[in-house]
Structures are given as C-alpha cells and as structure tokens.
C-alpha cells in the first residue's frame, strides 16, 4: 500500500488496479472503488455496510472506538451542556452556530410554520384509534407532499430551505396530534409565544379544559433528548432518506421513508422495546440472570434491548449524558416517581451486563435508547410516543443530510449492486406441466 493508493491484484488474471485512498478530515481513510467494476469487472460485497462509506459528509462525526460524537465539529457534551435544540438545528442545517440575529430569524420562521393545513387535521380521523402514532406519522409526513410538492423544485436552495423549515416546524404538531388522536382528546394548536420544546409538551398535555403547566425540568430534559438524537451520520433511517431523496423525490416522501426505517426495534424503536423488556422482566418474576442468559444464548433470538451499537465499541457518549439526565430527573421526582421498580430493574441490569464477560468482550454498552425510554416513562409520556419523539428530534438530521446530498454536484441516484445467487436462466413451463 502506497501513501495514497491501494493496489488490488486479481490473482485469476494477473491484472491490477491502483485504487485511490481518500482522506477525510477525521476518521479512517477510505478506498475509492468507483472504477473497480469498470476496470476489473468486480462488485464488492458488504451487506449491512460494515466497511462501506456510502457518501461524503461534513455534518456529523463519530469515533466509535473512543466513544466520541460531534455535530459540525462540536463535541456533543459541549452542545448538551451549553446549547439548545433550535441552536443545534441551525448548526446541523447551516454548518455554523448562529449569531443571535440568525437564531432569532430561524426561530421566527419555525414558529410561523408550525400549523398544519386544516385538511391534514381531517386525515387523522381516517385512522383506527389504536393506530400506532408512528404509523400515523409515516402517513401524515408523506401526505405533506400532496400539499407542497407540486410547487417544490428540489434543485432550488430556497425551496429546499422552506421545505426543511416546514418539516422541522410541523413535526411537533404532527407528533402531538398523533397522540391526541390515539387517546381521543381534542387537538391542541401550537402557540407562537412558546419555544419549540415547550410548545410540543403543551400540545401533548394541554386540554381545552386545563392548560399545560410548564415544567422547566421536563422542558430541559426534553430539549437535551432532542439534542442528543438530532443526528447520527449514516444510520439506517438517514441512509433511507438519502437513498429515497437521491431519485429527486419530494423531501416529505423521503422523510416519511426515514420515519418508517427508524420505527424498527433494532433502530429507533429500541427505546420502546427497552420498557417492554423491563416490564416483562418484572412481571415474569424470573429474575435478571434468566434474561442475561437468554441474551447470551445463540439459539434464542432475544437480545438485551438498549445494549450494543454498530458503531460504538465503547460507551455511547449520548448514553453517558442521558444517564445523568435520567438520574437527575428521577432524583428530582423522588417519591413521586411511579416507575421506581422499573428504574431499579434497569439500573441492576446495567450493572450486571457491564460486568458480564459476554457483554464486556463484545463491547456491548448501554446505548442512548436504554435511558431515553426510562426518562420518557418518568415524564408520563406514553410508550408508543417514544420513537415518535426520536423521529421529531432526528428530522433536522435527516433534512441536513438530504440538503447536503441534493446540493452535492457529484450526487447521483443511489443504486446498490448485488451478488446474485438465484436460479440461472431456465425455461417457462406451462401450468399443465407443473
Ligand atoms: N444483546 C445480546 N447480544 C448482543 C446484543 C444485545 N443487545 N447486541 C449485539 N449482541 C451480540 C451479537 O449476538 C453478536 O455476538 P457474536 O459476535 O457472538 O455473534 C455481537 O454482539 C455483535 O453484534 P452484531 O449483531 O453483529 O452487531 P450489529 O452492529 O449488527 O448490531 C445493534 C447493532 C444495535 C442492532 C445490536 O447491538 C442490537 O440489536 N441491540 C439491541 C437493539 C438496540 O438497542 N438498538 C438501538 C441502537 S442505538 C439507537 C440507534 O442508533 O437507533
């Protein structure tokens, strides 16, 4: 291997190719294999993208070995400590922290896009009352395309910015209304004098008979959760948004696809799965060790939800921050915490797993979802809303990636190849011969 190329020799033919090594500003160097098929006639095989960089990006950097996460260069710890979610949104979207007037202008724009068209309100009544709010969110966000797509040129940066502001602004309304519909309560409209997080909590918890009493502890905890979930580079849902958007589809359709991807329990659905698991552990009375043993058993599909991560082979830095928020919030609630048993079980599980060789050897640490579910539970947020809140937080990340991709002059439609292992050519047999 030279300084900036890798030579690949085909042992079968003796042909070789010099592949350029691309150097990013941080993280592993990347072998540029774009000419491989043209020159040697090979594809590469990497299911699950274990070693494949699918794009170039300037948004978020993760060092999985060190357990580091940075948005636009800023360590997540500093942003969590000193910033706010709207400021982080601005940073992710535009690349720099906003000056005060820029932040004010951004907040103004978001505030003034938070209402939904009244026709969208009527969509909700088409769902069964027990519909999962994620299912409603996938549908409603996709349906926004019907309201804005015809006037939208994805190659126009102003149109992209308006679409991004609309989505960030409307997501709390869409999320809260999904919840209100599922419990049969009237929808609460956004209020312009409230900040992003306070507005969301009010739309979730206020009713026409009783306004929501603002709680700064909950608001700060929610703001932090939104910051921690705002972006995470090329994960399954973000890659889905990029791939969908690469065909120049509407950003509303691309985000709807991303929400669908996030829903799965191996991704954003894990926070809900964690609480289900903890409740099962408590109600079964079988003890924690039984579940640890099941997680280690290769013949059992059970996994400890909220443990492990594809990229982090060290403590998830978000988990470190959220763990503290979790403990602070629960200390604040004190005896008023109706979820003490759940929390105690979670903390015991965390302790046992962190000391168990199986988890230590595989570097399986608690991830962000292990704690976020517990915090939401303590804030009386219903379980089926956990992933919805993750989607709300991640909207800005998805949009930042979508905008980066569309404005990249080298962007082209995403089209993976395959290793075909099905039948070779065979002839059709008529029905009477089969
Ligand atoms: N419980 C028990 N064993 C596990 C777990 C777990 N939660 N996670 C991974 N392993 C084992 C796995 O069986 C494998 O063992 P072996 O090497 O003996 O075959 C080894 O650890 C490596 O696992 P992997 O499946 O190859 O790792 P992956 O990168 O494909 O999967 C993951 C990552 C997050 C899907 C997986 O760790 C998992 O299913 N965790 C539980 C679900 C979860 O908490 N997801 C939220 C992720 S954080 C939020 C987000 O980014 O969306």
Give a structural overview:
With 434 residues, the chain is mainly alpha-helical. A 3-stranded antiparallel beta sheet has the order 1-2-3. Strands 4-5-6 form a 3-stranded antiparallel beta sheet. Strand 5 and strand 6 form a beta hairpin. The radius of gyration is 24 Å and the shape is globular. The chain starts with a strand and ends in a 27-residue tail after the last helix. The mean pLDDT is 92. Carboxymethyl coenzyme *A (CMC) binds next to helix 17.
Briefly, what is this?
With 434 residues, this protein is mainly α.
Secondary-structure content class: mainly alpha
How far apart the termini lie comes to 56 Å
Annotation field: number of helices? 18
Radius of gyration: 24 Å
**Residues in β-strands, percent:** 5-15%
Number of E-type strands: 6
Mean pLDDT: 92
Describe the biggest sheet? 3 strands, antiparallel
N-to-C series of helices and strands: EEEHEEEHHHHHHHHHHHHHHHHH
Bound molecules: carboxymethyl coenzyme *A
Spatial strand order of the main sheet:
1-2-3
Q: Spans of 5+ residues with little confidence (pLDDT < 50)?
A: none
How helix-rich are the residues, as a percent range?
40-55%
CA-based shape: globular
